[in-house]
Amino acid sequence: MGNKMGAGASSKKERKDRSHLLQTCLEHEGSVNCMAVSEDGSILATGGEDKSARIWSSKTEQCECLGVLIGHEDYVNCILIEDNFVLSGSADATIRKWDMSTLECVLIFTGHNSSINRIICTGDFVFSSS
């Protein structure tokens, strides 16, 4: 039951009983720990217990997995999208920067001694906590 990600919809105008599940995505091989949406809302990034991050199309009729980002040695705990990049923080004490167009890891940030809990990006700077 923990390896599901769902997409739902509701509106402030709708009553609570009118909200509904649109889709369940089962591609992660464990629980989904974190999610982020691109600024324009077209891309969803997720990170999970399976040590992977995934990129999804969120503007298509069905949410579609566009790519799998593999490289972390432990579960992915936090994720963000900045321009054409995904940054993922892991319990392996690293942050990885991924190019969304090639699905390649372009940089590994090290220096933490424990699980990365949060990542914030201001464009020029990446702030992280563990």
Compressed to H and E, one letter per element, the order equals: EEEEEEEEEEEE
Ends distance: 28 Å
On the 0 to 100 scale, the average pLDDT is: 84
> What is the 3D form?
globular
| Low-confidence regions | 7-11
Could you describe the largest sheet, including whether it forms a barrel?
Answer: 4 strands, antiparallel
Number of helices: 0
Radius of gyration: 15 Å
The fraction of residues assigned to DSSP E strands is: over 45%
- In spatial order, strands of the major sheet run 3-4-5-6
General description of the model:
With about 130 residues, the chain is an all-beta fold. The protein is about 0% helix and about 50% strand. It is built from no helices and 12 strands. The strands form 4 sheets. The protein has a 4-stranded antiparallel β-sheet, with no helix packed on it. The model is unreliable at about 5-10 (pLDDT under 50).
